[in-house]
Amino acid sequence: MWSPDQSIIVTAEQRTAEEAAAARKAEFPNLEPDQFWFVVRASGNEQELRDWVASLNDPEGPDYDPMAWAVASAKLDFAKFFERDHPLVEAAREALCITVDQLDDLWRFAAA
């Protein structure tokens, strides 16, 4: 007896999750580097962001994590785009003590 390949079946929950992700992506599109850096600078957070990234590579600092520094510094220096829900963006938001709503507003402003 034939049975469908379970790996190709999309459940209602999966479809709902995909639709929610697409809606979030539409609300918070990827930012080009100039858009990202514009809003970082316009909000007055550039130096604080750079200081946080540098602190990740400070062996004397409480956040010392050379691998995290390598990822963060490379992303900030060479990214072709920035994703709102990227773990680095969330880590930076927390490190800079920016609320989710504040970051969302900044993201929308940069994307406009």
Describe this structure in words.
The chain has one domain. The protein is an all-alpha fold.
SSE succession: HHHHHH
Cα-to-Cα separation, first versus last residue: 55 Å
Rg, rounded, reads: 18 Å
Strand content: under 5%
Assign a percent range to the helix content.
Answer: 55-70%
> Any idea what the shape is?
extended
Please give the largest β-sheet. Answer: none
Structural class: mainly alpha
**Unreliable runs, pLDDT <50, ≥5 residues?**
none
Number of strands: 0
Mean pLDDT: 93
Number of spatially distinct domains: 1
Provide a count of the helices: 6
Output the keywords.
112 residues; mainly alpha
Q: How is this fold's topology laid out?
A:
Blueprint: H1 12-27, H2 33-42, H3 46-55, H4 66-78, H5 87-95, H6 100-111
Short description:
This protein has 112 residues and is mainly α. The chain contains 6 helices and no strands.
